[in-house]
Amino acid sequence: MILASAQTKPTRYNIKKNLHDHYRMIEVAGDYGSKLIAFPEMSITGYERDKAGELAFSKTDSRLDKLRTLAADKNMIIIAGAPIKVDNGMFIGSFILFPDQTLSFYTKQFLHHGEEDYFSPSFNFNPLLELDDERISLAICADIDNPLHPENASKLNTSIYIPSIFFSPVGVPDAYKNLSNYASKYSMNILMSNFCGESWGKPSGGRSAFWDSKGELIGSMNDSDPGLLIAEKKYEQWNVKCFF
Fold this sequence. Notes:
The protein has five helices and 15 strands. By secondary structure, the chain is of the alpha/beta class. It has one domain: Carbon-nitrogen hydrolase (Nitrilase/N-carbamoyl-D-aminoacid amidohydrolase, 4-Layer Sandwich). The chain has a seven-stranded mixed sheet with strand order 5-4-3-2-1-14-15. A six-stranded mixed sheet has the order 6-7-8-9-12-13, with helices on one face. A two-stranded antiparallel ribbon has the order 10-11. The relative contact order is 0.17.
């Protein structure tokens, strides 16, 4: 099995450019044989609060069509983030695009302080993904600050936990510590994706990474450059390579 974490540098309010960055990274991940690629929190729009209403996507948004096509062409699950509007609710979400061109989505369950002014938390959209022999649960940013989130994932017999985050350089060390602890405590492999550069006019800390189920850091990106982290499982052993 091969998985990819995309470390991206979003352009503010430029959905078209950000989507083209997604397409390019998906193509490269497909060349390496990835069965799944995960992007950071609200990767398509960049992390934005006050403009979320203008930038929001719907479940049937035509702007997702090329991602659907790529998921089918590359036989890959694509996890890409955006503000998602469902009925009258606004959520921080991750779209999940499958090779059969179906679509699902995950919504952030635990919000950062201040996000509640623009978004609602929700436990209603929390799909468990199955890929080969793995059971995969998703998380978004502040979800990983709440120990209940990985605990609940473990109750679903999750073997791979995938947080899509926007953490600053100051916050990344705490994220590393928490994710390592969750991996060892619940015997979950963890694939994390973070922005590099700025989003929302603030710095992001990069260092997208992979931990094995013993809590060992197997590989990580740097803090400044966009690129791909490729994690490959052979004979129950995970190895990681990074490409910039």
